[in-house]
């Protein structure tokens, strides 16, 4: 079984998709000759040529807008946005058009495109390179929002996103790009919208996605040393949200902690907590606790470790719900 | 076809003893951007220097006339329908018929159009039923109801200039596919100020795609006159920045509009890349029925432009050539009136009230959340 990084997995997913469907094409800044600023698209222009792997001019709104035109024509574009903070220029095209074209045309014109975005912090970057914009997209009807946490899931979910007839915002946790996993690619997930139970447990549910799944797993290990059995759920997608897996676990344990890097207020934790409350209120033994970024703009790198949810802060939240 | 082979406009040939081709006349880099290309003068006569560029037979000329007359009549009917409460709002096309009909008439069947929100005369020229357009103003469905793929016309696009990248991407798709279709993006003078216009035009140029960027410069973006929109001497001149030709055309001259669009589409199909056409015209009506132009422009200005109305000058020309008889002229008006009656019938009394299909095409399949919400929606019957 190959021991692969998430970058390897994403590269392989793109490669296989490009081979299997000649309508698939990829486009973005520096993705061709350079192979992408994170090398996710390494080697692809050599194999598939510059008509299918396009180095675009520097203009996120134009890149997404022209991808929309390509999708309307009949291609299946996979756009790379170089960094999370740069997607904001493209929000008009994403929210006003990607999300609404199928709806506006009653299904006559659909946009089977993917917008890949390296997201999240933890790499010591300068401003605008550590954003967590998932809530804006999950809140927008008509978009699917996916965030893998492992190389295997990155492989399977990107393939599924490219096959999907709907526009998918594919958020890649950049702090997880280089971690390795022994992965049997045949066993990769093939469906969007199904959460993964990363670790089974009985006492507390910890819900996470993307870069905080590893934090949740660390906290679960620490809690186990204290005799508290945590179930870790890797949501994998924020839209559609797997309410079934989420609420079943939350009702069973009665105690839930949600972890994400994005600022707490108005973040996905609020939606998750609401869903749990609506479906399982009378099974809960403690309020749902959210551990997230503080309500400040993502801070300068020297503050990063203190800003990002750590295993210690998650363990603290586990104590909170356990002792309630 | 590789993108790394870019195309440049052929330089003007030597040997100026010959009359220049229209292509050379329009696309020469020496041409001053301030003189709009014109064939049909406001008095209905043809400019002897350019009349030979008309490439239309009598039937086609009459068809252009019919389309403009019908567009004008349907526009008036639509305004009436809005005033009577049948439409929430309406964006009149009055004054811009030549710019729209002339350009759309040059399109071939497989070509695609990406409109903004006032291209009713383009829709008419493509064969679309105006009722299908008005339904978006009525609130029946956002995109309008025409068959987008069959007519090669995308839905109206309200966020200004955001359709221009769509058009460029579509044209890129056609180029990559080796298809011989061309794409027209329609937009107004205000759109040229937007980032998406700039980004799309730049990409169109560097990728050399088969697109015509057709700007209807009707002098106003709601209340903002062109002089406050840009310091540029002309909108067409901005094409220089993107590496392809910009052409300024008298937008109220249906013959010039048609000829210029025809040339630009030919360029596109021949792999020579984009053209920016600035059709100089005037919005004789308000921006929309929610607007009051008396607050920002004078009646003397509007009067001046009424005298440049595209339809009377063309009528005068056709009558002068004995192409448009009295009977034919009346038949065009009658056609317009008949269509207006059918338009009214289609709109008045069309179903209003909640449509449960709003849950259907959010995604390819309804999600569990949408299923539950749909059931909730249905459980609240419309108030009587």
Task: Please explain how this structure is put together.
The complex is a heterodimer of chains A (324) and B (384). By secondary structure, chain A is an alpha/beta fold. Chain A is built from 12 helices and 14 strands. Chain A has helices spanning 6-20, 44-48, 60-73, 91-98, 101-104, 134-138, 151-163, 212-225, 243-253, 268-280, 304-307, 311-322; strands at residues 3-5, 24-28, 53-55, 76-80, 114-119, 144-146, 168-173, 180-182, 196-199, 204-208, 230-234, 237-239, 256-263, 289-293. In chain A, the strands form 3 sheets. In chain A, strands 3-2-4-5-7-6-12 form a 7-stranded mixed β-sheet, sandwiched between helices. Chain A is globular. Chain A starts with a strand and ends with a helix. The mean pLDDT of chain A is 98. A 5-stranded parallel β-sheet of chain B has the order 1-2-3-7-6, with helices on both faces. Chain B is globular, with a radius of gyration of 22 Å. The longest helix of chain B has 26 residues, at 58-83. Chain B has helices at residues 22-27, 58-83, 97-105, 120-126, 130-138, 148-151, 163-177, 195-207, 226-229, 254-269, 299-306, 310-320, 326-347, 368-379; strands at 112-114, 183-188, 211-217, 220-221, 224-225, 246-250, 275-280. Chain B is built from 14 helices and 7 strands. The model of chain B is unreliable at 1-13 (pLDDT under 50). Chain B starts with 21 loop residues before the first helix and ends in a 5-residue tail after the last helix. Chain B is an alpha/beta fold and 384 residues long. Chains A and B meet through helix 3, helix 4 and helix 5 of A and helix 7 and helix 8 of B.
- Reading the helices and strands of chain B in chain order gives HHHEHHHHEHEEEHEHEHHHH
Major sheet of chain A: order of its strands? 3-2-4-5-7-6-12
Helicity level of chain A: 25-40%
Provide the residue-averaged pLDDT of chain B.
93
Task: Tell me what portion of residues of chain A adopts beta-strand conformation.
Answer: 15-25%
Helix proportion of residues of chain B, in percent?
40-55%
Count the DSSP helices of chain B: 14
Order of helices and strands of chain A: EHEHEHEHHEHEHEEEEHEEHEHEHH
Query: What's the Cα radius of gyration of chain B?
Result: 22 Å
Q: How many strands, which pairing sense, and closed or not: the largest β-sheet of chain A?
A: 7 strands, mixed
Strand order of the largest sheet of chain B: 1-2-3-7-6
What oligomeric state best describes the polypeptide chains here? Answer: heterodimer
% residues in beta strands of chain B = 5-15%
Number of strands of chain B: 7
Give the N-terminus to C-terminus distance of chain B in angstroms: 60 Å
Query: Low-confidence runs of chain A (pLDDT<50, min 5 residues)?
Result: none
Rounded Rg of chain A: 19 Å
Distance between the termini of chain A: 44 Å
Outline the biggest β-sheet of chain B.
5 strands, parallel
